[in-house]
Amino acid sequence: MSRQISQGEGLAVEIHTSTNLQKLFRKTLVTGGTQDVKKPYTWIPTFLTGQSFWLISTPMAQSLEIIKTNVVYETGELFELGIQLSYLLLLLGFLGIGTFFVIRQVLVRRELDLSAKELQEQVRSGDASATELFELGAVMLRRKIYPAATKYLVQAIEKWDGDDQDLAQVYNALGVSYVRDGKLAKGITMFETAVKLQPGYVTAWNNLGDAYEQKKDFKSALNAFEEVLLFDPNNKVAQPRRDTLKEQVKLYRDVPVKTKER
């Protein structure tokens, strides 16, 4: 029994002691004693949490910087690639346009050669009409063979039996051939004949004005371009040339005009 009492007292004591410890612990929670006990234990987890956050946040920040750098680098690459593609497309466009004009010139040249061959055969046979001689002269003019063009156009004029207004086109073509062959005076004569045969022939008037301007006869050139604007007020060739020549005529009004012949 005593052992039991002893054990019971012991349990009582332990309970009592535990109760006192609990009271003491509760008491220290209210008084300043708990702060001395609790400070180390609350600061250490906070410190560890801060360290962990710092250890985690630093690599994250570095990763974000790397991601930003990669994004900027990739954006720059895409922009540079876009510029290169634009230049490539532009180059291909120019090459395509150049190829188109080259092919077109080749086809036109071939067509002119075939036309010239057919017309020359008719001329050799002696059956060529004035119109066919004019066409052959025009073909030679486009091929820039000016002596041959002049030859066939003169023959067309000598053999002409059609309307005078149509004949004006032959004289105009002959004037172009003379001017391009360096025979400016003869070219002017042909253009003047063309506009006499057909007074409203705007192309011949423009050619006449250009020929006079090459001769430095600015007043006559101005008169020719003004004639063009009487028949075609919105002519894009004559308008700027007329305005420029007006200023030149004012400048040289009191100065004698010097031609190449003088």
Helical proportion, percent range = over 70%
Number of strands: 0
The whole-angstrom Rg is: 52 Å
CA-based shape: flat
Write the CATH fold name of the domain at 130-251.
Serine Threonine Protein Phosphatase 5, Tetratricopeptide repeat
> How many individual helices?
9
Class per helix and strand makeup: mainly alpha
What is the CATH architecture descriptor of the domain at 130-251?
Alpha Horseshoe
Low-confidence stretches: 1-41
Distance between the termini: 162 Å
Provide the succession of SSEs.
HHHHHHHHH
Give average pLDDT, whole number.
74
Class of the domain at 130-251 in CATH? Mainly Alpha
CATH homologous superfamily annotation of the domain at 130-251: Tetratricopeptide repeat domain
Task: Determine the strand fraction and express it as a percent band.
Answer: under 5%
Major sheet size, sense and barrel closure: none
